[in-house]
Design brief:
heterotetramer, A mainly alpha, B mainly alpha, C alpha/beta, D alpha/beta, A: two-stranded antiparallel sheet, 15 helices, D: Rossmann fold, 13 helices, about 40% helix
């Protein structure tokens, strides 16, 4: 019976999301919206591994970039977008799986995890950057180094290479994918697998003492996050029509982390809010030259870490709850407590 | 240094270097003596900035490793932003004060010798300071267990401040010294920080031995590969080496090999 | 005599030059309740960590029901049907009591059975009033109890506890004694403990650790009467 | 480097003024001029002067009555050295602002990020930057100098002057690789030998091992195809080791962003370059440009080759619009394809109808006291590299960037 109100919330949420999808293009240009949605999916992927698995990955951009590059490379070689699109999810997920296995089976934690993911991102960034010379070909696709890969087949209706999905259609496709991703994760974190993962994020040793193979769970969760970031990457590639090594940069990783912090990783909606708000902010900042972007984002990051470590989502959602006058359920409480809070030891509210 | 002692990963370290470089350049352009600028003024000013940031931000976050990482990342972005607004993104630089000379057929960059001398001096004095002076003892004590130091009547807060100041000042010094060799842009620090950061983390908690051993290892790996192939391979080899090392010795070199050393 | 369920041969755990566990031969029989005692630094906690896979012993073997588990991971050992509780309450602070126990039950049951199992355990440990509370909100004693509930939810046949009574008030200790007796009805137990009074109220067989080795092994009353043990506890060298 | 606070603020004020001035013209009475440039972020050293000079060019055109009796409205966005923002603002220019022409883009990646968008919306796109060559698309016009144009003058001159053993240091991206290949080709043609080519990622700032390697190889001269802020360290470290006195250097990149102003004259003196412009060119148009720029922005230190090309691209477009009597893409293109030729501060500039690139004067120059002293002028050099692969006359629907095999 507790689940009932949850389903009610969910259905209302999805309904509102669809309303947003139809209404928003009247206020903001849809190409900007598409990008915000892509960023939201990327943020969601980090929100999953960080907020629920307790794995702070400094290299989420690596999977994003890998997804975008896989898409571009396979799209050039294959010419039809369906298979490249799937591969763009599979390749980063596999990569994340292998990387995760190395890290988690090696029992690396916190800082070292951060360092490894950071280093791997740097290696990829360096590597892709140094592929300008013509011998770096994958099939007929030239990796292009610093200049990236332009001119590949963008998203098309499956099976019809000439029916491009772009402009407004592309925006709708992205939005639907976002809703589906959100729902997928919503059910994932409520499944047995998800709950165990949350438990592991909360207290790894306890989970182990109970008899869960922590390494396996973390690795799989990490791979799911990687795949989702790859999906965002594929959409990005299709949106931008070019992929460049900048996708792998630390700056990109930093942005994802800032979105998550601002939105809050204690619930799935947090990273989405964060990505949308900051994405818009960045876009509007681009239309002025007085204040440097780095400064603005740096200040935001520091302020949130110091004063609002839970991010905006809890605040937004309490307003949301009041609007719905739904009862608080245990299940919702669970989502509120994040590992980040735990590390700090502020256990009592 | 800050990591080893205070269990803080400072992402803004590279930016402290960058600030040191800019301080040096501004001073030199204002007519100051270059050695005075990079050996005295740059560390002092950067140290003060570090101190200010420690008081304003970092001291609220001790013991929250991940949060400090994030906050210092934010600080690094702020510093880059401010410097960009003041100086712009265009490269700033000053010329090298020592001329090269010839050894046999080879031209040698005289300034490199100067850097090596300064580095040796720093490592030695750092070791001496930590190992043999009372201050060093207190600092080491405080890092091991702040409560003990506190119960002995030392204010751990002050000790943290001092250490952070010194760490920042050291980066300022490094930035100052490197300034004449490179073209300085606001994002310059980020290029170095990954390397320095990895060196320190892989080096592990024993500050000096760890630093020297991992720095030597990475430095030689980098240079050897750079010489044989090209700088990309040098860097990639360095990074791979770091990953492998962390995999084999997850606690850092010193924890696994040089146990119980400083 | 009952069947031997856990034994160690020449178990060693060295940290640098320190022999925290030194050539320990230890056996435990089915349904036995055994306390490990000894002064601070005697090696009993390290021994506990070796048994549970939290530390890898330097040398020697550990057998659990005939299987060698010396280098197994904690989760593998746990899966043999062994419940483990560490010294500091090791719980998921951000989850509710119910969820904490559920995670343990779910490991061995499908969702429906797990739900039923959780209710049973809550009944057994008598914590029905706090099931919806978050662990982070509970007092120390309650947390210890919940952790035992987590352990029980997996239906272990062997339960290993590290200082279950540490830091508890008198009333909590009494409850703990009851719970331990309750658990012992269905499982063998190894309890690492410091508090003599507590031990007297629960145990028969006691193993005394001193400087990494087993000093003696006997009935609790005999152990308490033993001069050597008294010396050890008062800090005299033997 | 010379951007002080005052100028910075005045730039911002100009932007605000531009925004405020916008709505005073009604849409049909203005020509909308779209601009995408990095005026912040790591490439703003290139972008800021381009933005300044473009605003000046538009002002000048407006002051003399505008184009086709309409004022030009400058719709510019700062792309912040971020490729995602290029895609985003390009769509804004095309779909929301509905501009008539777009000038801009600095890096090749940024050009490729926006090229298809403008092609799909049929908005003529002018890319006015030195680049690696090979772009073949009827919708784009490029007036930057390409590797063949530079290298075919630079290398023979350097070989004649210094000797036949060449050591090349290049930035590790497309421009570097392609230029290095052209150097190899032209060296071979005149019997010289490229003993080694080394590529450096754009963020490498430590050239110690390379300088050691060059000393082992003992080339007669080195060619620098290094790009960007970090690579400037090379010139400094080269001079610091005293090598600048021993082995001479030519460069295809030094000075394109006025890098000489950051270095000392001692570090740059004697370096040989070949561009389609130098501040020292002695003609009326150049003198006027320098005087105007100086009057508007204080000095001309930051007016570099890219900004100059950008200025000339705008002049070319304006000339084409005047002749066509329309800003429509097809009509402007048709005029350009007649081989439109105009006089600019850098001399005569002709549109190559086959490639939509430019036929330029190339000036072989030497740095002396931070100035590019012209040694020799090569008139009307065609973009040979792109011509090898691209013919828009026979294949007007072509739409790609060729990698030219040499």
């Amino acid at each position: 019976m507790m689940l009932d109100s949850n389903y009610k919330n969910l259905i209302i949420g999805v309904f509102l999301a669809i309303v947003c999808m139809l209404v928003l293009p009247y206020f903001i240009e849809y190409y900007t919206l598409s990008l915000l949605i892509i960023y939201s999916i990327l943020a969601l992927s980090l929100g999953l591994v960080w907020g629920f698995g307790g794995i702070l990955c400094f290299g989420q951009a690596a999977f994003f970039g890998l997804g975008a590059y896989s898409y571009a490379v396979f799209a050039i070689n294959i010419g039809e977008s369906t298979l490249p699109f799937l591969l763009a999810i599979i390749v980063p997920a596999t990569f994340a799986f292998i990387l995760g296995a190395i890290m988690f089976y090696g029992r690396l934690t916190d800082v070292y995890l951060g360092v490894i993911t950071l280093v791997v991102t740097l290696i990829l960034f360096r590597f892709i950057n140094s592929t300008a010379s013509p011998e770096y070909m994958i099939g007929t696709a030239h990796l292009g180094g610093f200049n990236g890969i332009p001119n590949f087949q963008t998203l098309n209706i499956p099976g019809m290479p000439d029916a491009y999905i772009w402009d407004l259609d592309f925006y709708y496709v992205c939005f639907v994918i976002l809703i589906l991703s959100y729902l997928g994760l919503h059910f994932l974190v409520r499944s047995s697998f998800g709950r165990v993962s949350i438990g592991i994020g909360q207290n790894e040793q306890r989970a182990e003492l109970i008899g869960y193979d922590v390494r396996k769970y973390k690795t799989i969760l990490f791979a799911v996050g990687g795949g989702l970031a790859g999906l965002a990457g594929a959409l990005y590639a299709s949106w931008a029509e070019i992929v460049t090594p900048g996708l792998f940069s630390l700056g990109q990783s930093a942005e994802v982390i800032i979105w998550c912090i601002v939105g809050g990783v204690t619930r799935l909606s947090g990273p989405i809010f964060g990505a949308v708000i900051l994405g818009l902010l960045k876009y509007y900042l681009g239309q002025q030259t007085l204040i440097d972007n780095n400064l603005v984002f740096g200040v935001i990051l520091v302020i949130f870490v110091l004063f609002l470590p839970q991010g905006l989502a809890p605040a937004i959602s309490s307003v949301w709850k009041k609007l719905l006058t739904a009862k608080k359920s245990t299940r919702n409480k669970l989502r509120k407590r994040a590992p980040r809070q735990m590390q700090r030891g502020h256990l009592n509210e | 240094m800050i990591f080893g002692m205070m269990k803080i990963i400072n992402f803004a370290h590279g930016e402290f270097m960058m600030l040191g470089g800019y301080t040096t350049i501004v001073c030199v352009k204002a007519g100051a003596n270059i050695y005075l600028a990079m050996l005295v003024i740059a560390p002092l000013i950067v140290g003060m900035i570090g101190l200010l940031l420690e008081r304003l931000v970092i001291r609220h976050l001790y013991g929250r490793l991940v949060d400090t990482m994030l906050a210092t990342w934010g600080i690094s972005m702020i510093l880059i932003g401010i410097v960009t607004m003041i100086f712009g993104n265009t490269t700033e630089s000053i010329s090298t004060p020592i001329k090269g000379w010839a050894i046999g057929d080879y031209q040698v960059n005289g300034y490199n010798f100067f850097i090596i001398l300064v580095a040796i001096g720093l490592v030695c004095s750092g070791y001496f300071l930590l190992k043999f002076t009372r201050l060093g003892l207190i600092v080491r004590g405080a890092m091991q267990d702040p409560n003990v130091a506190a119960s002995l009547g030392y204010n751990p807060d002050r000790i943290y401040m001092t250490t952070f100041f010194m760490g920042a000042a050291l980066s300022g010094l490094a930035g100052g010294i490197l300034a004449p060799l490179v073209g300085l842009v606001p994002s310059w620090g980020t290029a170095y920080i990954a390397k320095a950061f990895i060196t320190v983390v892989v080096g592990g908690p024993a500050i000096i031995v760890g630093l020297v051993s991992s720095a030597t290892l990475f430095g030689s790996v980098n240079q050897i590969f750079a010489f044989i192939f090209n700088p990309v391979f040098g860097e990639v080899a360095l990074l791979l080496c770091a990953v492998i090392l962390l995999r084999i010795l997850p606690k850092g070199i010193t924890n696994s090999i040089f146990k119980g050393k400083l | 005599m009952n069947e031997i369920v856990l034994e160690t041969h020449n178990l060693n755990m060295h940290f640098g030059g320190v022999k925290a566990v030194n050539n320990v031969d230890f056996t435990l029989r089915e349904n036995e309740l055994r306390c490990l005692i000894g002064p601070n630094g005697a090696g009993k906690s390290t021994f506990f960590k070796c048994l549970t896979g939290l530390n890898k012993p330097t040398s020697g073997e550990i057998y659990i029901r005939g299987e060698e588990t010396t280098h197994w991971h904690t989760h593998q050992i746990s899966r043999l049907g062994i419940g483990i509780k560490t010294q500091v309450p090791n719980v998921m602070d951000g989850l509710s009591v119910w969820e904490n126990i559920w995670l343990s039950a779910r490991r061995y049951h499908d969702v429906k059975q797990a739900n039923r199992r959780v209710e049973e355990v809550i009944e057994r440990i008598k914590i029905g009033d706090i099931t919806k509370k978050l662990l982070g909100e509970l007092a120390h004693g309650q947390r210890q109890r919940v952790e035992l509930a987590i352990v029980l939810a997996a239906d272990p046949w062997l339960v290993i506890l590290d200082e279950p009574a540490a830091g508890m008030t008198g009333q909590d200790v009494e409850i703990m004694v009851d719970i331990i007796r309750e658990i012992n009805r269905s499982a063998a137990m190894i309890i690492v403990e410091h508090d003599m009074q507590f031990i007297q109220s629960i145990a028969n067989q006691v193993t005394v650790f001193y400087q990494g080795s087993i000093l003696m092994e006997d009935h609790v009353d005999n152990v308490l009467a033993d001069q050597k043990v008294r010396d050890v506890y008062l800090g005299r060298n033997v | 480097m010379k951007i002080n606070r005052r100028k910075f603020l005045s730039g911002a004020a100009a932007l605000t003024a531009g925004v405020l001035a916008g709505p005073t013209f009604s849409a049909s009475q203005t020509i909308k001029f779209g601009s995408l440039l990095d005026t912040s972020g790591i490439f703003d050293g290139y972008g800021k002067p381009m933005d300044k000079v473009a605003r000046m060019a538009i002002e000048q055109i407006n002051a003399t009555g505008g184009l086709l009796n309409k004022q030009i409205e400058y719709v510019g966005y700062d792309t912040q050295s971020n490729m995602a923002l290029y895609s985003q603002f390009a769509r804004k220019l095309a779909r929301t602002d509905k501009v008539d022409v777009v000038h801009g883009g600095i890096l090749s990646a940024s050009r490729e990020a926006v090229r298809q968008t403008f092609r799909k919306s049929q908005i003529p796109y002018f890319y006015n930057v030195l680049y690696e060559g090979g772009v073949c698309d009827r919708n784009i016009f490029i007036n930057g100098i390409t590797p063949a144009q530079q290298v075919q003058t630079l290398i023979p001159a350097a070989v004649k002057k210094w000797g036949k053993k060449i050591y090349v240091l290049a930035a590790d991206y497309n421009y570097g690789h392609i230029t290095a290949n052209w150097i190899k080709k032209y060296a071979k043609e005149i019997g010289a030998e490229v003993s080694n080519i080394e590529f450096f990622p754009l963020d490498v700032a430590d050239f110690g091992s390379t300088i050691a390697k060059i000393q082992t190889e003992k080339p007669d001269f080195i060619v620098s195809v290094l790009v960007g802020g970090a690579h400037i360290s090379f010139y400094r470290q080269w001079a610091a080791s005293g090598m600048n006195k021993k082995i001479p250097m030519a460069s295809t990149t030094l000075g394109a962003g006025n890098e000489q102003n950051i270095l000392t004259s001692e570090e740059t003196d004697g370096i040989l370059v070949a561009y389609n412009y130098s501040h020292e060119l002695d003609n009326d148009l150049n003198r006027k440009l320098l005087a105007d720029y100086s009057a508007k922005y204080g000095d001309v230190d930051d007016l570099h080759l890219l900004a100059l090309s950008h200025y000339e691209g705008i002049l070319t477009w304006a000339a084409a619009v005047r002749i066509a009597g329309s800003v429509e893409g097809d009509k402007v293109s048709a005029v350009m394809e007649t081989g439109l030729s105009i006089d600019t501060p850098s001399g005569k500039m002709t549109v190559d109808p086959q490639t939509h690139h430019s036929i330029l004067n190339v000036y072989l120059s030497e740095f002396k006291d931070k100035k590019m002293q012209v040694l020799e002028t090569f008139l009307q050099q065609p973009p040979l590299d792109t011509q090898m692969v691209c013919n828009l006359k026979t294949n007007p629907d072509d739409n790609q960037q060729y990698v030219i095999k040499i």
